[in-house]
Every structure is written in structure tokens, then in C-alpha cells.
Amino acid sequence: MGALERLDPPPWAHKMRITFCQSVLAVAIVVNLLILYYISRLQQRVLHRHRDHPQPRSPQQHGNQLRSGVTVLIREFEDFENYVPNVVRGFIKQRPWLPVVVVADRLPYPPLVLPAAPNVQLMVLKPAPDKPAQVFRPEAYVKTEYVVLVPDGVKVDPTSQLEQMLEEFQVSQGKAEMVAVPVQSLSPLQCLNLRVNLREWTAEYTAVPPPGKLCTALKGDAVLLLRTRDLFNLSLPLAKPLLTSLFIQTSLRGWAVRVLDLSFSALHQPLLTSSHNQWKADNLARSQRAQLFRDFGIKRLVLEDGKEQWFGCSKETARCFGTIHDDTPEYLYQGRWTPPCCLRALRETAKYVINILETSGVRYWLEGGTLLGAARYQDIIPWDYDVDLGIYLEDVPNCELLRSAESGSIVDEKGFVWEKAVEGDFYRVQYSEHNHLHVDLWPFYPKNGLMTKDTWMDHRQDVEFPEHFLKPLVPVPFAGFLALAPNNYRSFLELKFGEGVIENPEYPNPAMKSMESVN
Ligand SMILES: *[C@@H]1O[C@H](CO)[C@@H](O)[C@H](O)[C@H]1NC(C)=O
Prior knowledge:
- This is Ribitol-5-phosphate transferase.
- This protein is α+β, with helices and mostly antiparallel strands.
- The chain is 29% helix and 21% strand.
- The chain has 13 helices and 25 strands.
- A hairpin with a 6-residue loop joins strand 19 (417-420) and strand 20.
- The radius of gyration is 34 Å and the shape is elongated.
């Protein structure tokens, strides 16, 4: 390059008298040229590197607030049919410098042909063994203070929507952590209230009256603006389905979203042009949703119309917790109670078994922790994992299923499994052949006014007791029906568990996991 040749003195230099000022000027020019040359080399090298390994880039740091402050992030689109390139073009037509990041699980195929601009980037979440971790972290691509999550198919018209969203975000500060603008679609955006109770594996949506524009969840298509640091401080910021996942996490943090009186229109309505593609998209969305609830440990959903949806165990699946060690099921260590599907199955089994005992003339009573639950909650204790019933040993022959269970386990007409327990002289009724949630039946017999039995478990409550508690048995509300319990069951329970047991809940083995201990 010319700049280097200029280092040699020009041939006329020795002939002319050069003033001090002239030489200073010459040196300054040469130094400037050298610097320019060096910078251009450097830039070329950086550009070259970027072509080989796309790296997160920072947007221009000047201009108005929008210019420096918002990144458009597109997360949800179908590989097989989408409008992502159109959406991106829509955004950068008016603002060629606007940072846009398209986030895909895998490299889209067929390929996504995005406008070639340094501020438009496609990032892939699926790691590759030859690339650095940073490349797969979406937060590394968003350098702005705010991020706007844009669904596929949004038409950017009018163009000032983003500025308005930012202004409204600032107006809402202190009240809402997010602002949303509906995308006009066939079904209007719904403002919902979402309550997530992880301990009970439950998410409950309720409809919020529209005047209060603060919602904790939305249903439908919306453009959502929030602070970048808020988004990427979530546990799973970009899990799909995006808004479902987001609002589960934000509602747990007490965040709200304000729906603005603006709207985006759609490029195409409906978005997908064939019913086959729509079918494919619906299937994918369904499995993503089920996977999301599994990942978040949500097994029971109550929808805004009151309908329930279950993602937990059923009669056809295995019990959703494993073998119990030290009387302390795994879920207690996770800071959770019995999955609601299991409680439901236990209630169903208890009701079914009790009905059979009553009709076949077997005297029974709620025992142990089950009686405690009835006294305390009129239900199964919310962290209990089985149901215990006491029965009179002499009544066993009255029940055909119990008689048959003596000679091996049998599956009854409703799919419940009756068996003699291998652990000792008691009976067990399992919810199904696959799902081993169970009701245990403990046969007692009277001896000198005490009720006793031959197999004892190493539990404080597993002790003899005076027969007068069973004369008479009294009906108590339990799990949605009436079941029989010992009379004066408070003293019965205090005899077995100790004083004040009804008023002072505690986990089954406080030495392993206590209610007071921090999760
Ligand atoms: C991230 O979230 C935690 C709580 O979930 C909060 O304590 C912390 O301040 C947050 N960090 C930022 C940078 O917002």
C-alpha cells in the first residue's frame, strides 16, 4: 500500500530546505496514514473471523433510545412454513440498524434466508462440539437494555409501535414488568390471571375482567417487551411454547403484564397456508406444551374455563414417585407434596376399597396417617403416599377379594390389584397393575380388650389400642365421602402419635426431612 512507500524520503527532499513546520506536518500525515492502514487491516481480520464463526455483536451505541435500547427476538416459527424473513425485513426497512436475533433450536431446514445485515443474526441453541459455549447462549446476542419478543407473521405497521411500547413500558414502571401488544388474529388476546403452586404441582388460570389491564398471563399472539436482564434471569427464558413458559416463570415472581391499546396486524391469516401444515404445527405445539409442564413439574392445570388437564400419572403409567426410603418420599426433598394425580388416584382407590368392605361386611376404620388426614383436612394428608385402613381379622372371610388374595394377587373387574403383602400379614390394594399407589388393610383382632395384630411395622403409630375406640365406629368426612373412624379419634390419634398431633403437622420422618427445614 502507498502509505508504506511514503516512509522513504521523496527524491526532492535533499534538494529543498524543509521548514520545521513542514516536517512536523509530514510526520503527522505519515502517522495518520499508518493508523488508518492498521485499523483497516484490523477490521478486515475481524470481519473475516465473523464470517467463519458468527459471534454475538453489539449494536450501535448511539442514537435515540430505541436505537440503542431494543433488540427484536424471534423465537417461535415453523421450519416448514414461516414468515420470519418478511418479519425481519419489516422491522429493518424503517430502521436498518435495529438489532434482530432469530433463535432456533436447530439450524432451520429448509434454510432461513434472512436479510444480510450485520445487525440481523440467526442463533442456534443446539450445541456443537467445535464451538465455544458463548455461541449457544442467546443472552450473548442481546446487548440492549430491552428485548421485544415477536411471534412469526407480525406485520410491522405502523412503524412507530416499538417506540410506543417503550414509552408505555416506562409509564408502567413499578406496576408491570412487561408490556404486550396483541397481534390481530382470529382469536382475541386474553388477559388471564395465573397462579402457580409448585409444591402442589399445579397451575391455575382464571379470566381477569378486562378493565384492569394488568394480567399475569396472556393467551393468544402478542408482541411482548421487557427488560433484557429480567428475561435472561428466568430459569428457562426461551423455552417453548414461549408465552406459556414465560408466564409460568414470571407469575412465580409476581410480575405483571400490561396489554396496550395498540395492535400489530398479521402478514397472513391464518399464518399457515395448508391444513396439513397446521396439523403439524398443532402437534408440535401440543408436545412442546406437555414437555414444558413436565420440565416445570406441573401435573395439574386448571384452565380459565374451569376445565382440568392432567400431565401426571394415570392408571396406565407407573406411580410418579419411586420407592420410599426412610418414610420420606423423594418429592419432599424437592420441596413438593404428593403429586395431585397420585392424591386423586389414592382417593379413588380408598373410596372403591371402602365401598367393597362395607358391602361385604368387613368392619374397617381409617388408620394411622390416613385418620390423621381425615381429622386435620377431611382428606388424605397432602404429602402422604398411601392409605391405611384397619380391619377386623375375623371379617376377612366375608370379602371374596380378600379371600382370593390369600393365594396370590388378583386383578379385579375394575383393574385394581388385590394381594397379600409380602412384607407381612396385611393386604394391599393397588390402583392398577402399572400404578402401584395403594391402600393397605391391616387386620387386627381383640385380645383382653386390646386390639392387636401379628405383624408390626417400625412406626410409632403402629401400636395396640383399646377396642372401645371401635365401639362404635363413627362416620367422618374423608376424601369427598363418608368413611368410618374410631370414636373419640382425637385421643386415639394422640395415643398413637403423641399429644397435639392434629394441630401440629410434621413430615413422616422429621429426622430426614422436617417441615421447618429450608428446602
Ligand atoms: C435475578 O432474580 C433473582 C430472584 O429470582 C433476584 O434476586 C436477582 O436480583 C435478579 N437479578 C437481576 C440482575 O435482576
